[in-house]
Amino acid sequence: MDDILNKPFAEITEDPFFRADNFENQPWYDDFQMYLHIGVCQPKPEHALQVQKALKIMGYPTHTAEHDGKLYLAPGEIGNRQQKKKHDRER
Question: Which helix or strand (DSSP H or E) is residue 70 part of?
């Protein structure tokens, strides 16, 4: 499992057969579980990338956000947000 987390972030892909409890022995597992339960977490800065990689493996696109000097992992990837055009909306 460590070889997966040592890959560059861009090379990590979703694995639908990977289980969340595979990360159980990681020091950031509680932050990982927090994200799975409520959709946001506040990992220690030194663990943020590892948590983000684990979430990407599980199929959760995330981005980092800072609020009041604290680092958070939030849903979605920055830059992939697309606003619907007027003609794309259902009528």
Answer: strand 70-75
